[in-house]
């Protein structure tokens, strides 16, 4: 691998490239510095000509100029420049600065030039308030051509400095990228995989690590110095520990219940004999909660079961709603997040080879024993992945706890209120970083469990059917449970639908169609923007998710665990913190994205990339690597193997990732609420604004519109990505 010839070629290419880059960038830097210096000189000359001779007018002029340009400092020496001029100031900083100027090597020459009524441009530089400035000495001439004093203008050429810093930064990135590519091309056996790893590291480095670094920096920097005072203050309060305990309790409870419900739905649709229409009907209704704005169902729950809810107050006469606090949060989060578990577990159950279950039944193991000994263990990767995804989503959620939490405080809400309500971004950052602790623990527990066991069931001989593992009583019980769940979901959505035709829910229940006209008049552009950006985000997240899962499951390389952790990290971070960190990171050079549609697409992809990784990884762990190894033995390249063998087998995971990303992009709130702009607005932010202003009719119209768009998108995706007939499975009874 490492031969003398290859090392010599790499060294020669590197040397030539670095020489070329240095020459190009130094030429650009010199040209820009010359232009900037000439422009600065012209500005100072123009400024010098406007210096007033009257001392009082000069003082006003000096204050005005310094207030307009923070990079400029002006000193005034009264009297004959050759006869011990006196600095006119009471400012100790200006006196210290003048002492430095007086001790400089060219001060005498500058004073002599001023005495001849000439300007003098010093080549020396000085540090003033963290800025590097260069002085220009200007004579103050009165009407009779006598010199009344010397004006010293110290100006910072910040534009040149910033440009050179940016140029140096870009040069480093360009050199690293090119030399890494050359290294991979020369020394790597699989250059395409190497390039993919570099791309993934670059993506998470720029769009995960860098923004969080900018946000974290605010928590440890005070007055330009490193300080842990804020950390000490927050960690010494019981508030953070109570919120942390509540967050863990809520996350564990929601993840456990939602994963259980999701598994029941997935098992019922894959391991019982159902008609195709019934199966599609159940799957469609099970996915409804995840395709609506996160607070829509919460509002519907409040309208039905809140303190003034239709069911609690009007029907039951209860004045205190039972939905506030932990029990209400557990109910609404389970309802809105169990589709995440359902989607993940369903794909795993579909991929299990039914011949293993059939063999168990042939050996008279019984359906229950087959389920406990075969199906449940083989579906463990999907269960654990679903649990992790729901857990991280639940503890990072702030919309539901904000509306239903009551006195049950959680870290995500505390962080959100600190950032948005108190404008203390550093406090919010600390709360969010503490929130990472339970997520990191869950991540390592899941990885430890999965790496200790083997779950391969797809070996190149796929079964074309799924085995029915339910007896009639079990099937009836599962059907009743699922029927209750679906009925409850339908009731909530009917509440939203009814809101479209009610003039003002809770105040005026008269029927009207004006909500539709007004909603589309005010939100038509938001519908177009939201749909376009979601369409762009979905395939990007799908491709990156499958690429990441393939590399992390099938390949070994330095930094593998780090890359996996960085890709999964966005699930653990409150969306509001990601939004704020993006504003901090991408509202300045070298990357300015705030106000563009690109930053919204990036936010969508980064936030949902963990789902693609987990979904793809769960599926890949069930595919025997021997299939790919056989193709490699036949001299198929990595790209060919991935395109013709791996990708068709993980297509269900790819489609699920695309669908999920599209839905999440359409329904995002916390991440993008700080990133929207008049040019690129979002439907969910508009729904939130309508609801906040008690315009429930308009909010309902936009919610129903959003749901309709997502359902249409699902239909198009299913049409474009039909199941492979070789992988299509149907449940069969024992016979």
From TrEMBL:
PROSITE patterns attached to this UniProt entry: ABC_TM1 (PS50928)
Membrane topology: Multi-pass membrane protein
Record keyword Transmembrane present: yes
Localisation: Membrane
Record Gene3D superfamilies: MetI-like
Keywords in alphabetical order: Membrane, Transmembrane, Transmembrane helix
Biological processes per GO annotation: transmembrane transport
ABC transmembrane type-1 domain sequence ranges: 244-446, 527-717
GO cellular component, one term: membrane
Pfam families on file: BPD_transp_1
Transmembrane spans: 166-186, 193-213, 248-269, 281-305, 370-390, 402-419, 425-445, 477-496, 532-553, 565-583, 589-606, 653-676, 696-721
Identification of the protein by name: ABC transmembrane type-1 domain-containing protein
